[in-house]
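Per reviewer request, we include the raw input and output of the structure prediction for the construct analysed in the revised manuscript.
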Amino acid sequence: MAITVISAGGSIIVPEKPDPDFLSLFRDSMAEYLSRHSEDRLIFVIGGGATARMYQEAAKKTLDNADPDILDWIGIRTTHLNATLVKAAFSALAPDDIVTDPTDEDLQFTGRVLIAGGWKPGFSTDTDAVYLARRFNAGKVINLSNIEKVYTDDPRKNPDAKPIDSISWKDFRKIVGDEWVPGKNTPFDPVASRLAEEAGIQVICAEGHNIENTIAILEGQPFKGTTIGA
């Protein structure tokens, strides 16, 4: 039995508003994959994305020196909303409650699919994905966002930035740094990167709207993306 953790950025599920057409296609594709691999299970950790950042920006404009924990909690609550939508889409495949604490000893995983949202301040749902990968002995996390590959620098700001096919955790962490900032938009968050390196977990970053590419990753076939670490 193989368990794969997929960290899906909120921008994939809710780019500006919920995208039911994409979500239906995504669900059907994952269900079809599971039907071909009867022993496999999938864990989806759902981010807050643009919805979280929109509310966080509103809080910053409303509050003087907004507490970072408050901003994180705003983001966390939006992940729960997005995760509830995804759980509803997967229906009978995801019978268990949404995971909001990956360290909970009473956590249940009885179906083929488990859905998780954010946990607590100090990191993004990428870190929750690493915690769940460690808990269920998944050696790989697939990180789906709106970028096809990790770049040497922000290509929106640096025209000389180059796409990366494979990179060590040491070199990747030089790119993302060590500090978490609520709403920070990085290929994989700094806290999650440190924990994944310590645990020897491989992360594959890929563009989440390309569902065929995600299936290729799950199937162990050639894919477009960046492999980080082990």
